[in-house]
Amino acid sequence: MTRTSTSAVLYICAERSQGSPGLARERAEQEGRDFASTHDLHIVDEITDPYGDPTPQNRAGWVRVRELVERDEVDAVITRWPNSLSMDSELRYAEMEHLAEYGVQVRFSWAPLATMADSGASR
């Protein structure tokens, strides 16, 4: 497969709040699209999960992300912040390492984290 830009999946794992349903999701979606645009990433799919389960592989959406990665359909995963993967850092890093085995990088779209990554800072 020939790619002209880096393909990415936008992964949204946002809490559903009673006060403003969908606001966190909308922000994460827009932030992810803006991030993709400024970093020459082509979003091939947008996948959402409700926030709360610390085990990524228990979420149907994350399972779909892994499938895209394992089928070599994406080069990057865009998500808002690390807790979108898991609030448990060990589970989060295990997932990031799994994706890295396929050459896929997780990119965080939240401005402070995106700036740190662009400047060369690591996890």
How would you describe this protein?
- With 123 residues, the protein is of the alpha/beta class.
- It has a single domain, classed as 3-Layer(aba) Sandwich (Rossmann fold).
- The chain is 39% helix and 22% strand.
- It has helices spanning 23-38, 60-70, 89-101, 111-118; strands at residues 6-14, 41-50, 76-79, 105-108.
- Strands 2-1-3-4 form a 4-stranded parallel β-sheet, with helices on both faces.
- It starts with 5 loop residues before the first strand and ends in a 5-residue tail after the last helix.
- 28% of the residues are buried.
- The model is unreliable at 119-123 (pLDDT under 50).
- Helix % is 25-40%
Number of extended strands: 4
| Secondary-structure content class | alpha/beta
Order of helices and strands: EHEHEHEH
Low-confidence stretches: 119-123
Q: What's the main sheet like?
A: 4 strands, parallel
CATH topology: Rossmann fold
N→C terminal distance: 31 Å
- Our estimate of the beta-strand percent is 15-25%
Per the principal axes of the C-alpha atoms, what is the gross shape? Answer: globular
**What's the architecture in CATH terms?**
3-Layer(aba) Sandwich
The CATH homologous superfamily is called: Resolvase, N-terminal catalytic domain
Which whole number gives the mean pLDDT?
Answer: 88
Number of helical regions: 4
Strand order of the largest sheet: 2-1-3-4
CATH class: Alpha Beta
Domain count: the total is 1
